[in-house]
Amino acid sequence: MQTRRQPEFQLPKASFLLIIIGIVVVFSLLKSFVTVDAGEAGVLWKRFGGGVVTDKPPMGEGFHLVAPWNDVQIYEVRQQEFFDQMKVLSSNGLDIQLEATVWYLPQVENLGFLHQTKGVNYLERVVRPALRSATREVVGRYTPEQIYSSKRAIIQNEIEEETKKILDPQYIQLNDVLVRDVTLPLTIKDAIERKLRQEQESLEYEFRLVKAEKEAEKQRIEARGKADANRILSASLTDKILRDKGIEATLKLSESPNSKVVIVGGKDGMPLILGNN
After folding, report:
1. DSSP label at 132?
2. Would you give the distance in Å from CA 18 to the centre of its chain?
3. How many angstroms separate the first and last alpha carbons of the chain?
4. Are 173 and 104 in contact (CB under 8 A)?
5. Domain shared by 93 and 124, yes or no
6. Which of 33, 48, 76 is the last residue of a domain?
7. Where does a domain end: 57, 76, 95?
8. 159, 98 in Cβ contact below 8 A?
């Protein structure tokens, strides 16, 4: 007894073709929908229209519809931070360990040129090499002592200026460079700190000397003033003036209610007062 085989179900060729077309259409539509998030911008690349679009502003935030055969590259246009540790040489050839932070972002109006010439990896291709080159150039002008102490703020500003000169033509905006730490060889650091302490102690000693000299000069001036005043007073006190002053004082004393005896013609012609005590 032979068993009857069930007929196999076969999809019509036309239906299969429609499914393929439908998948392609859906994929194309999905690729045509582009959403640019907050803090981002999009660079359009036209497959049949000359490549990267550089003559128009980049795509802003929001929803965009593009042809499925074109492509959009999204860039972050917020300020970004990059931290780097570098070993550079001072003016006398000593190793300096320096840590710096860079705040940067792409120039939005030139985002198409940045994408065309540098690409999305512009941090490693441009920003980092520019920072290192500028740092080597600037630090090489100074001694370790200058870098460690008084010149640190100046060096930071010079690194920023040199880095900006490199990045501006590369369509990258530099906002700031912060030198966070400078590490010298331990022996050099100890020698610099000893020298700075000695200079501080010397300044303090000089300050005390100047202060003592000023105090002594002040006392000399006061003494001269008192001596001059005494000389002027002595020159003005004649015998007649002293006698008149004595008579005035005696008269005032005689007016008191206490009983007394006044004798005129005492020593030097001054009256004498004899009280009951």
Report:
1. H
2. 66
3. 173
4. yes
5. yes
6. 76
7. 76
8. no
